Structures are given as structure tokens and as C-alpha cells.
Amino acid sequence: MAKFLNTTGVSYHLEELIKNTTDRLILISPYLQFSKRVKDHLEDLNLKKKDIRIIYRENKLQVEESNWLEGQIGIRTSLCSTLHAKCYINEHEAIVTSMNLYQFSQQNNDEMGVYVKKDEDPQLYRDIFEEAQRLLTISEEIRVSVKKVDKEADSKIEDSLNEIKKKKRNPNARLLSTKDLSQLLKTSSRNVNSMLVDNKFMYKDGEDWVTTKRGKDFGGVERAGQYGKFVLWPEDIAETLKG
Q1: Cα 213 vs. chain centroid, distance in angstroms?
Q2: Which of 54, 183, 209, 224 is the most buried (most CB within 10 A)?
Q3: CA terminus-to-terminus distance, the chain
Q4: pLDDT at 73
Q5: pLDDT of residue 218
Q6: How high is the pLDDT of residue 146?
Q7: Which helix or strand (DSSP H or E) is residue 11 part of?
Q8: How does strand 51-56 pair with strand 24-28?
Q9: Which of 153, 146, 127, 152 is nearest to 75 (CA)?
Q10: Is 32:99 a contact under the CB 8 Å cutoff?
């Protein structure tokens, strides 16, 4: 069952949520100003190669925050000009709150929020997670140097997708697993998964791989297996991943 949080509760559970991340962390906050403790936890996760995504609205970071983010190469940041929501989520728990990831807010403002555990309220957690994924999809990823990512690659993907939509798909076309694609592309399955995630074709939800709308449009098909859901892809996606 969801739990109500006051200002102190939000601050405490936010730090614990970051610290206890085992795989993937998404931090959504219009404004950013990291406390030392939050920076320490994020640096530790980054060193452990965890998937850290930060979505914020204002590309006007203080010099200290900008320099710190520039030094955290593995942390991926995105801008969303319409962002007003504040949400923090890992693979086990989520917080939806009025509190920005901003040190002044944590220390001076009167805030409130709701804390959700995946194993206690899986549907609510999934709804929050899917909205976080939608925000990632519509946000514009920027590099740590605070320069916008070149949209040329994204444009090529959309062009490929539009071409495929124009064609009549062969119902007997081969569907390939990640392992099949890795052999076709002569790379590891892990790299193929990263390509598919980076190109916004799928994302990981706990142990499950889930297709995005773009992935479904491209012909991705979810299947259930012994170790959770996985996705099969039409053979022609290899050319898009190569590009």
C-alpha cells in the first residue's frame, strides 16, 4: 500500500531509494541542486556502472552542478521543457512528490509525497514507471557538456521506421532474438540490448524487456520466457542498429 510522506519522509526515502538502486535509477525534477550525500550515492552507483537517468527542465545549472555532472560520464541527462512533475524511481520503489531534487527544497520547504513499493502495489508502481518512461521518450537527451545531442541519428531511425510502415510487412518474415541479432551484427547480446534501449525501441522493467511504441511500430513482439519477458525483432532492424 502507498505511504504518505512529509518533508522529512521524502528526504529520507529519496536518499534510501538512490542508495538501494541495484540496476536502474530515474530521477525526474525540474530543478537540480545536489546535496553532498546525494552526489556521493550517485557517484557510487556510477562507478558500479548502474543505469542512471536524470530528467530536468531548466538548462541553467550552477557552475558547481554543471562541473560535477560533466565529471559523471555514465549519468545520462535529458531536458523536458514542459516538465513540472517530481518523481524518483528505481526497480523496487518509487516516490511521487512536490519536492525538487534541490538541496534548498529539502532543507527549507514544506513538501509532501507518496512512497510506493513495487512488491506491495505492483500496478501503481507500473503506472508510475510507464509515465517515467514516457517522459524519457519525449525528453531531449543532452551530453554531460550540456550540449544537445545531435538529432541526426534519431532522424535516420524515424526515416527507417517510416519506410517500413509504407511497406506491406511479410507475415512470414523472420523474427530474431537478441542473441540472433548479436550474431548478425557480430557483437555481444548486451551491446544489442544497449542499442535497442538507446534507440528507444525497448526498456527494462525489473527482469522483463518491454517494447516502446516505437519498438512495436518497428515490429517488436514480446514473448514470455523462463526468466521473464523478452522481445523478438524483425530481421531488418539490424540495418537500423548498424546505422
Answers
A1: 15
A2: 209
A3: 45
A4: 83
A5: 85
A6: 44
A7: helix 7-19
A8: parallel
A9: 146
A10: no
